[in-house]
Write a structure and sequence with these properties.
Elements: H1 9-20, H2 23-29, E1 40-44, H3 50-58, E2 64-69, H4 72-79, E3 87-92, E4 104-110, H5 118-131, E5 132-143, H6 151-169, H7 180-185, E6 189-196, E7 201-207
Parallel strand pairs: 1-2, 1-4, 2-3, 4-5
Antiparallel strand pairs: 5-7, 6-7
Bound molecules: S-adenosylmethionine.
S-adenosylmethionine binds near residues 96 and 115.
Length: about 210
């Protein structure tokens, strides 16, 4: 199966912290202050589920969270998290194959689109965008090489990462897809933008 992190699930968080320090975590945690109480939230590709505990620290109850993960191992780890009294729906599926029925106030896709081909990015963006309520927020966190400085090391870094995750997780992408045009074309408003790790990681909040 493509883009499946089963084989590396147990080591993923340690590896990510080893390579990126706290950057990947900070990029996601800093967005969580924008969650309002009693929100309906969709998380796609949440990995080991550490973010669920971070969300529960801010909102121990009242949230309704749908968590879609393609990796059974990642999902199993996520289910062991201490998530307070929030309501959960854990789904083992790729987001492409799962038929979403609800609409959401907030959608999180942390380091998801950088796994995808252009075609899959288009399909998933459209599917998720349709499910986000008007005025709802989309927390997008991904790598980027758009910044003017340090392009050479970012390109090299990406090449190594794509090679590694291509072998371990069968990641289909070997290039980053720029998601900006998708949000612009759908008239989203950028309400927050932060950069991490020498601007290699970008965390954006878009409002529909
Ligand atoms: C790069 S990891 C990021 C994990 C987590 N967001 C984090 O930052 O620690 C990408 C995650 O997305 C999941 N994933 C990849 N493709 C997916 C898809 N089509 N549908 C749902 N989950 C997917 C993988 O199994 C993996 O857990």
């Amino acid at each position: 199966m493509i883009n499946n992190y089963d084989k590396i699930a147990k080591h993923y968080d340690s590896l990510s912290r080893l390579v990126f320090g706290k950057s990947q975590v900070a990029a996601q945690v800093n967005q969580l202050n924008n969650i309002k109480e009693n929100s309906a939230i969709l998380i796609v590709g949440g990995g080991t589920g550490w973010i669920l505990e971070e969300i529960a620290k801010l909102h121990p109850s009242g949230l309704k969270i749908t968590y879609v993960e393609i990796s059974a191992q990642m999902l199993a780890l996520s289910k062991t998290r201490n998530c307070g009294k929030n309501e959960f729906l854990f789904i083992h599926s790729s987001i492409e194959d799962f038929s979403l029925e609800d609409h959401f106030d907030i959608i999180l896709t942390p380091f998801l689109f950088d796994n995808f081909s252009v075609e899959r990015c288009r399909i998933v963006f459209q599917k998720l965008s349709y499910r986000l309520n008007k005025g709802g927020l989309w927390f997008l966190v991904d790598f980027t090489i758009q910044a003017k400085s340090g392009k050479w090391w970012k390109k090299l870094f990406l090449k190594v990462m794509y090679k590694f995750f291509g072998l371990i997780s069968n990641v289909e992408a070997n290039n980053l897809v720029d998601m900006l045009p998708y949000f612009n074309d759908a008239n989203y408003k950028l309400i927050e933008e932060r950069s991490y790790y020498g601007q290699f990681i970008k965390a954006m909040i878009y409002q529909k």
